[in-house]
């Protein structure tokens, strides 16, 4: 069901069902150039002014659309940019649009092209990305625009992969991804923005760090604690009544979605399946076998057993995950620090370094114990 989210009449954001899958575009859009409105483009070495123009390049039998467009970004700067992408080559597709790898200059980017059924969600995503504070665990938003056929386009930084496609074998790397996901959600909630569709296909990995993406179902509660969702005109004509969503309940849903995602990341389960108490017991045993200390495991499993995690529960998990990841880093640092040698001066330095690391490990263990 498509819907529009607004917390105030002057700030309307459209929302559709989850925008994690994208379908084959209509015929008129398949060869249509993107005329994007991008922000932050000067980082890519562009900044000339001028009107839109297009050209096509042959590449492996396909046509790449090369587009130069006069654009207006979120910073209100008008610039001319060039973005290349091949409509025939899709990274993914689904009911609501297509996803392509494109280029701005030499830098690879993600180009998302909406279908008519995905327009409301894409417009909502554009509104949310224009408001949310940039951060290390939120996907980098480059800009947005329209194809010549009128379809909405969102341009994002390219990540390595989504978590439903790949999870690392190392438990500490998986824990770091769960940590980044938790921090990303905390950042959104601190701004009174909810994600609405948090799952492994909407969590990206870039250099081993998690980033949240796909904000088509997100909601902005910064101006109100409840939002009425105006319906698509076609649904309203059928007599369907609008739904009202509430900030606290929507944040709780996000935290429950995060709990499910975090547990499955730690389990190494890319499918993001539902799990029961037996699965959590198996996870606890697995974490122990993989070398995590009891001080680390206890708060992690404590969170995993929370059916309706509170804001404090979420914060405790993030803290426990951070301390555990940091503990692993300190242990590796300690192992890499020599215990001694022939050089007395160097031996003194090594000893001081090892004592400093051991002191940090002691403080780390105490902090973890306080969460148990």
Shape: globular
What share of residues are in beta strands?
25-35%
The tally of strands reads 18
Give the averaged pLDDT, no decimals.
81
Q: Approximately how much helix is present in the residues? A: 25-40%
Name the assembly state. single chain
Summing up helix and strand content along with how strands pair, one would put the structural category as alpha+beta
| Sequence of secondary-structure elements | EEHEEEEEEEHEEEHEEEEEHEHHHHH
Structure description:
Residues 1-63 and 68-72 have low confidence and may be disordered. This protein has helices spanning 27-30, 119-131, 171-190, 233-237, 247-267, 277-289, 294-304, 311-336, 344-371; strands spanning 3-8, 11-15, 34-38, 53-59, 62-72, 78-85, 92-93, 97-104, 107-114, 141-147, 152-157, 161-162, 193-194, 203-206, 209-212, 219-220, 226-229, 243-246. It is globular. Helix 3 packs antiparallel against helix 8 and helix 8 packs antiparallel against helix 9 (344-371). The longest helix has 28 residues, at 344-371. 38% of the residues lie in helices and 26% in strands. The two termini are 42 Å apart. It is an alpha+beta fold and 372 residues long. The strands form five sheets. Strands 3, 4, 5, 6, 7, 8, 9, 10 and 11 form a nine-stranded antiparallel β-sheet that branches. The chain has a three-stranded antiparallel β-sheet with strand order 12-14-15. A two-stranded antiparallel ribbon has the order 1-2.
């Amino acid at each position: 069901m498509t819907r529009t989210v607004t917390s105030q009449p002057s700030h309307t954001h459209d929302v559709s069902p989850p925008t994690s899958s994208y379908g084959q575009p209509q015929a008129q859009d398949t060869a249509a150039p993107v005329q994007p409105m991008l922000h932050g483009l000067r980082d890519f070495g562009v900044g000339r002014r001028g009107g839109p123009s297009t050209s096509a390049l042959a590449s492996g039998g396909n046509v790449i659309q090369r587009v130069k467009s006069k654009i207006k970004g979120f910073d209100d700067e008008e610039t001319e940019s060039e973005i290349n992408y091949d409509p025939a080559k899709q990274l993914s597709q689904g009911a609501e649009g297509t996803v392509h790898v494109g280029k701005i200059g030499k830098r690879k980017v993600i180009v998302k092209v909406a279908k008519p059924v995905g327009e409301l969600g894409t417009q909502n995503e554009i509104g949310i990305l224009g408001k949310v504070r940039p951060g290390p665990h939120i996907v980098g938003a480059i800009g947005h625009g329209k194809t010549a056929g009128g379809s909405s386009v969102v341009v994002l930084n390219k990540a390595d992969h989504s978590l439903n496609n790949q999870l690392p074998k190392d438990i500490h790397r998986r824990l770091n991804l769960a940590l980044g996901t938790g921090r990303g959600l905390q950042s959104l909630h601190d701004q009174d923005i909810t994600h609405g569709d948090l799952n492994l296909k909407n969590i990206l990995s870039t250099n081993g760090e998690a980033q949240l993406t796909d904000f088509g179902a997100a909601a902005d509660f910064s101006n109100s604690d409840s939002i009425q969702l105006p319906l698509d005109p076609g649904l309203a004509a059928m007599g369907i009544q609008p739904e009202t969503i509430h900030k606290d309940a929507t944040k709780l849903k996000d935290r429950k979605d995060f709990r499910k995602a975090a547990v499955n990341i730690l389990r190494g389960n890319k499918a993001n399946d539902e799990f029961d108490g037996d699965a959590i017991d198996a996870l606890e045993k697995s974490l122990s076998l993989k070398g995590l200390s009891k001080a680390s495991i206890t708060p992690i499993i404590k969170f995993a057993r929370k059916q309706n995690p509170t804001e404090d529960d979420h914060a405790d998990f993030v803290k426990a995950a951070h301390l555990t990841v940091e503990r692993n880093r300190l242990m590796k640092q300690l192992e890499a620090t020599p215990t001694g040698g022939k050089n007395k001066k160097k031996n003194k330095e090594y000893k001081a370094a090892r004592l400093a690391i051991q002191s940090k490990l002691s403080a780390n263990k105490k902090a973890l114990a306080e969460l148990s």
